[in-house]
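Suppose you are handed a protein chain with no further information: no name, no annotation, nothing but its sequence. What can you learn? This example shows the usual starting point.
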Amino acid sequence: MTDWLAAEIEGSLITADFEKSPADTFGTPATLHESGLSDIAGSLRLRFVRERGSRPEFFGSVEVLPPQHGNKVLIGDAEWDVKGEIGAVRQGGAPDDYGLDAAAHWRIARGLDLKLFSFVGLLSKATDWEAQAGLMWTLPQ
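A reasonable first move is to predict its three-dimensional structure. Written in structure tokens, the prediction is:
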């Protein structure tokens, strides 16, 4: 949106399977399969202070996830989830979280883009694989 404010809406697809242990004597179903949209969230990110000289950049964000699939046992979440973050970052660091990422934006309408992102980790501390899809709004200047 600007060089100090960003807004994002994202979501993912989830699939979960459960197989009951033969030693389980409770009335739990033998198998359970659930799938659907998951982690549909909106977030705002703010840059408070830019990195300069030896001073790091300071930032903050808030992310809101509404209740989703409240009737599903494996993938459901009946509660609102609000996450906040305040941090500092400097460029550089140890080379232990590298990966390959690809991103694409498709303009759906003026000021509205579909955002697609995929990441494959190359080193042990990196995420193995991550995929994201979201909508990005651009406000007129």
